[in-house]
Design brief:
373 residues, alpha/beta, TIM Barrel, Lyase, Ornithine Decarboxylase, Chain A, domain 1, 13 helices, binds pyridoxal-5'-phosphate
Length: 373
């Protein structure tokens, strides 16, 4: 399966399906808006999109941030509901929205007039969702803006009120309750709006609100098999998620390395004992962070081995000197960079980031393959 000598992400459609089932288990009565922005959180392949699509019902939605991605999905999935998370910013986008039957968020007064132009006279017209700022202070109408533009917003006949919790991965943080209370107060001003949407993966996994049939849940990272919660706080439900993507890269050179030799740019690592050095075809241009040099490990034949020296643009170097019964590395072997044995949560900590950034930072040049299961 891993044959061409390229850094390769293996994608498990079975794991994806299993994660979709977890969302249904948590919120069996709610509809889902599955977040597929940033090229499906780096998963990229049409098979991933199709798997998500075929596991949703006809009233469920895919969401992206920009119109180009939405149009590209529309061409593949003519009947799927698609939501633009950032709304539209000019007349041309409004026309594209109209033409391709896209649903849009309105989060700012400047979008109200444009949103009207996405509406069709004939029914059913694609829905407009109104985003309110319940306390994250990023996108969304503030209370003042809602008061000022109340009649224009109401005239859009919104399908759902939408907001985003900033601290849902810390369930006991009082910011969550403040935002939920603020959101409910705003909701009372819009009694005719049938639906709400407040829950990302952390809100779902930490069960911060009741998930009734009026709520559109918005799972993102959990669909791809990762929890946004800190790993030390993972409960059974977080642990039931199955990462859909594991990452491998091939050994393209092997050499003996003498005690005292320096390796890589700047010679940041000095060999402590004669051993073998494997040069692996992956680097920061593939999305393997430069911060991982001299910090991370890769896995091969039953053992982890340290990444030594700096990560360069296209290569990393790994030191093999363990006296084990494991088979020695061979040219063309693929090492696991993360996956079953190298935990992405721990790796992202070493790279001073979060799994979201690592996944969405995987370069286009990384080969994606569907795992045969
Ligand atoms: C508006 C909105 N809703 C939901 C999500 C999904 O978040 P998560 O991946 O944490 O589930 C995102 C992702 O950033 C988002 O921007």
């Amino acid at each position: 399966m891993l044959n061409s000598l390229q850094a390769t992400a293996l994608l498990s459609l079975e794991n994806l399906k299993s994660n979709l089932l977890v969302t249904q288990k948590i919120a069996p009565y709610s509809r889902r808006v599955v977040i597929v922005k940033a090229q499906l959180y780096g998963h990229l392949l049409d098979e991933v999109l199709q798997t998500i699509h075929t596991n949703l019902n006809s009233q469920e939605v895919l969401a992206v941030t920009d119109i180009d991605s939405a149009v590209s999905i529309r061409k593949k999935l003519p009947n799927r509901r698609i939501l633009l998370l950032h709304g539209i910013s000019n007349l041309e986008e409004a026309q594209e929205c109209y033409f391709h039957n896209l649903e849009t968020i309105v989060h700012h007064p400047s979008q109200i007039e444009l949103a009207k132009k996405t509406q069709k006279k004939e029914s059913p017209s694609p829905f407009i969702w109104v985003k309110v700022d319940s306390g994250m202070h990023r996108l969304g109408f503030t209370l003042d803006q809602i008061t000022q533009h109340f009649s224009e917003i109401s005239a859009l006949n919104p399908h759902a009120l939408f907001s985003h919790l900033s601290n849902a991965d810390s369930p006991s943080d009082q910011q969550n309750q403040q935002q939920i209370t603020q959101f409910s107060a705003i909701q009372k001003s819009f009694p005719d709006v049938a639906y709400t949407s407040l829950s990302n993966s952390a809100t779902l996994l930490n069960q911060l609100i009741p998930f009734n049939k009026k709520e559109y849940i918005r799972p993102g990272i959990m669909i791809y098999g990762l929890s946004p919660n800190p790993i030390e706080k993972h409960h059974t439900i977080d642990k039931s998620l199955k990462p859909a993507l594991s990452f491998f890269a091939p050994i393209i050179s092997l050499k003996t390395i003498k005690k005292g030799s320096f390796v890589g740019y700047g010679g940041s690592w000095q060999c402590p004992k004669d051993g073998t050095l494997a040069v692996i075809k992956v680097g920061y241009a593939d999305g393997y962070s430069r911060l991982l040099g001299n910090r991370s490990s890769v896995y091969l034949n039953g053992q982890p081995y340290p990444v030594v020296g700096h990560v360069s643009m296209d290569l990393i170097t790994v030191y093999f000197n363990k006296q084990t019964n494991c088979p020695p590395p061979k040219l063309g072997d693929f090492v696991e960079l993360w996956g079953e044995h190298i935990c992405l949560y721990s790796l992202s900590k070493k790279a001073q980031t979060i799994p979201y950034e690592i996944l969405t930072g995987l370069a286009d040049r990384v080969c994606r393959k569907i795992q045969q299961e």
